[in-house]
Write a structure and sequence with these properties.
single chain; 211 residues; D-Maltodextrin-Binding Protein, domain 2; 5-stranded mixed beta sheet; 8 helices; 30% strand; elongated; binds adenosine-5'-triphosphate; binds 1-O-pyrophosphono-5-O-phosphono-alpha-D-ribofuranose
């Protein structure tokens, strides 16, 4: 049998993917929260898990370093999805990609000619969103804790994922414009789909049954 490598990130994606893998009779032999290993064996000798940052999953799968992976749609929208099939919406890690700003901010905030500053880790998504609205936006790349940016006057708005809205509220911000509904997707390397067809087809079928 050919080896199949599955790319997952620690935390909610790993936890929520476990039951789907279990349905395909794949059980990791280590827990990424306690192990320092980045490649985990499973009960099936030919199936390995690589544990990487959530934003790196599409890249590993795109280049064939992993055959298949699980990534949030937010991450896929930002990455662009080149070289990937996206066969299944797994319906896990659901949230929304939104703009947010201070409690007293108005949606209709675009004074003629005034450029707004937007802080986010979703730079491509934010640029596209404001460009489609015809709004001039200067987009500042951050790697986390975006909610801080409007408080310290680094930016007028942020673009981030929102679930309960508690993080925004705790920082004096409110959700403003809806950009996309988000859930995690199975992503598959296009070449692996051809070269390892039988193993990949079986795995995708089992995971889609579990969904
Ligand atoms: P990293 O730590 O590598 O920067 P991350 O913090 O975005 O990545 P996670 O917090 O594990 O990683 O999020 C993984 C995915 O889960 C996100 O890409 C998004 O699709 C979804 N997600 C993020 N936050 C929430 C949330 N509060 N509720 C539900 N789903 C979420
Ligand atoms: C995510 C995201 C938001 C928060 C939104 O952070 O970055 O800050 O969830 O969720 P809420 O609307 O329910 O408050 P997470 O808790 O995953 O921590 P992280 O910053 O490590 O990603």
């Amino acid at each position: 049998m050919q080896t199949i490598t599955i790319a997952l990130s620690k935390g909610r994606i790993f936890k929520e993917t476990l039951p789907l893998l279990a349905h395909a009779d794949i059980i990791p032999l280590d827990d990424p929260e306690s192990s320092r290993k980045l490649i985990l064996d499973t009960n099936q000798e030919h199936i390995k898990l690589v544990i990487i940052r959530a934003t790196d999953v599409p890249t590993y799968v795109q280049y064939g370093a992993a055959d298949i992976g699980v990534a949030g749609k937010d991450v896929l929208l930002e990455h662009g999805g080149q070289g990937l099939y996206e066969p299944i919406d797994l319906g896990i890690a659901k949230c929304k990609l939104m703009t947010a700003g201070p409690m007293d901010a108005e949606i209709n905030y675009f004074e003629q000619g005034k450029k707004i500053r937007v802080a986010t880790k979703f730079v491509n998504v934010a640029k596209r969103f404001y460009a489609e609205k015809g709004v001039q936006a200067e987009v500042i790349k951050l790697y986390g804790s975006m909610e801080l940016a409007p408080i310290v006057n680094l930016a007028d708005r942020i673009v981030d994922v929102v679930d309960t809205g508690n993080t925004l509220k705790a920082n004096g911000l409110k959700p403003m414009e809806h950009i996309a509904d988000i859930s995690s997707r199975l992503v598959v390397n296009k070449a692996s789909m051809k070269m390892k067809h039988d193993e990949m087809h079986h795995l995708i079928k089992k995971i889609s049954e579990a969904v």
